[in-house]
Design a protein that fits this description.
Mean pLDDT: 94
Distance between the termini: 6 Å
Largest sheet: 7 strands, mixed, barrel
Number of strands: 12
Strand order of the largest sheet: 4-10-9-7-5-11-12
Strand content: 25-35%
Structural class: alpha/beta
Radius of gyration: 17 Å
Helix content: 10-25%
Shape: globular
Low-confidence stretches: none
Length: 215
C-alpha cells in the first residue's frame, strides 16, 4: 500500500483555536537529559485542530466519539473542489452541480482552499460555510462522513446550530479542519480517519489520511 497523504494539521503549543476554546498547551514533564526519558503533558479541548464531531456534539443521547463506526470513517470518498474566499458559502445548487448524477458516495470531502489559513487567526473569521439548505440536502443523502478544510460547516453565529444539527442528527460524522486537500485530485479518493476513542466525549482530535484510488 502506498501513496498516503497526511490530511492532519499538527497540534502545537499556542496554536489558534475556536474562539473561547481552551488554548493548546504541550509542556515538558521529563527529558532524556535529566530523567532518562522524554514525556509531555498535553492540555487542550477535544475539538481542536483536525478533529471529528460525533453526533452527540449537538444531538442529545446520540453516539459519542468512541461509539463511531470505523466503517463510516474508512473507505472510498468523493472529494469535491469548491474554492471559496472569506465569507463564501456553499449552496445546495453548488453541491448538486459538483456531484455526478446518481452518485451514492457515503463519504464526501469538501475542499475550499481555506485550510491554507490554518496557522493564522483568520482561519476562524468568516470562513466558508454551508447554507442550511445545503446541509439538509447532504443530510438526506445517507452519508456516513462529511469532511472539510474549514473549522466548521456552519458559521460561529449559526442560530440554533441548524447546520450542525441537520448533519449530526442524520448520523453524519463530521471531520473538520482537514489539511493538504490540494494534494489530492477532485473525484474518487480513499480516506482513513481515526479519532481518539475518548469515552463519553462529543469529539476528538484525529489522524486523517487520504490517497488517490487505484493504489
Amino acid at each position: 500500500m502506498g501513496g498516503w497523504i497526511d490530511l492532519t494539521h499538527p497540534l502545537y503549543q499556542g496554536m489558534p483555536v475556536w474562539p473561547g476554546d481552551t488554548t493548546v498547551g504541550i509542556t515538558e514533564v521529563m527529558t532524556v537529559e535529566t530523567d532518562g526519558c522524554s514525556a509531555q503533558r498535553v492540555d487542550m479541548g477535544n475539538h481542536v485542530g483536525t478533529h471529528v464531531d460525533a453526533p452527540s456534539h449537538f444531538v442529545p443521547k446520540a453516539r459519542d466519539v468512541d461509539q463511531l463506526s470505523l466503517q463510516a470513517m474508512t473507505g472510498p470518498a468523493r472529494l469535491l473542489s469548491l474554492p471559496r474566499e472569506q465569507g463564501g458559502v456553499i449552496s445546495r445548487d453548488d453541491l448538486q452541480a459538483a456531484l455526478r448524477p446518481g452518485d451514492v458516495s457515503r463519504r464526501i470531502i469538501l475542499r475550499t482552499g481555506w485550510g491554507d489559513r490554518f496557522a493564522t487567526p483568520e482561519f476562524y473569521h468568516r470562513f466558508p460555510v454551508l447554507t442550511v439548505e445545503a446541509a439538509e440536502y447532504l443530510a438526506g443523502l445517507d452519508l456516513w462522513l462529511l469532511g472539510m478544510d474549514t473549522p466548521s460547516p456552519s458559521p460561529i453565529d449559526d442560530p440554533g446550530q441548524r447546520i450542525h444539527k441537520a448533519l449530526l442528527g442524520a448520523g453524519v460524522v463530521l471531520v473538520e479542519s482537514m489539511a493538504h486537500l490540494d494534494s489530492l485530485p477532485a473525484g474518487e479518493i480513499d480516506v482513513c480517519v481515526l479519532p481518539l476513542p475518548l469515552h463519553q466525549a462529543s469529539g476528538a482530535p484525529c489522524r486523517a489520511i487520504g490517497r488517490c484510488c487505484g493504489y
